[in-house]
Amino acid sequence: MQKSKILHIFNDQKKFSKDFFDFLLKHNFDLSRHSLFHYGKKDPYYAKFGMPYLFSSYFSVWKHFKLLRMMFDNEKIIVHSLASPWLLLYLFFFPSLGQKVHWAIWGKDLYYYRLLEKKHLHHHIYEFFRKKVFKIIGNTLVYVKGDYELAQQWYGVKGKNYDCFMYPSNLHKEIDIKPRKHTTVNIQIGNSAEKSNNHFDVFDRLLKYKEDNIRIFAPLSYGDQEYARKVIAKGKALFGEKFVPLTEFIPYNEYLDYLGTIDIVIFGHQRQQALGNSIILLGLGKKVYMRNDITTWEFFHDISVKVYNIENIDLRPLDEFTKRQNRENIKAYFSEERLVAQLKKLFDKKEEEE
Hints:
Rossmann fold; about 350 residues; 14 helices
């Protein structure tokens, strides 16, 4: 593969990488300076970006040897979620590479070990390497300040942090949603069929309203489908026809219609998660509840966006003043112009040498 300057290492979340490189292409970034190592099945879509790219399974030894060569050849390594055991091993055995690394913390890669319900021997081994590697990482990419502080506290991370929200999925989107008349208070809980949504805890918090005129929606088309079946069974048992599981992919126009009916959104995550969803919903003027002991809560407070404590759920709608303030502050912080400026700073060699 030809030598470039900036290597991106992505996990198998192709939606994020496609949107990311499409955004760079749209804003005339010179992608000939970039290269890509991507976990997952090869996808011809990436040929449009005009940069070297290599797809690999986690089990391909030969391609991981190529990855090591790419890491030495490039001047800067942007790791989009640091979770690969191969990558941890390379950084452990070649610590000089750590100074090139810019770790875009996604959340799970930071919280993984602490939120495990059961820890087995392989988890302890994996955590041993994480502790060693995270300390020698030269740079982090975090816009939720609390996550960087936790990385420092838990793992002794010392690298420079770049304030960058990285992905177009986090941009404020001007969406024309016309509120649809409905007589019920419509509540969405969670954003996927993952246990981290803590649906059962949210059910318990909503039980006192089960006789009220409510409808509870749960997006469950993405994630662990065995867990989704348990959520559906419990939701139906507790709330009957007032519980509406969303188990099929919803086309975009139908999704916008659906959002027009939602009044309140409750996220039960115990860590920074569903941030892109929260940004969209707050930008649309929705009332969002979350835990007040996670980094997301502090982040929204810092940018003057009002979110509500999951410990004190009520069914009152969001007032018009708070709706307007939230929309304005989300629009200003998560603007396209701001993301372009952040990425230019991240990719700029001169800035790094200052």
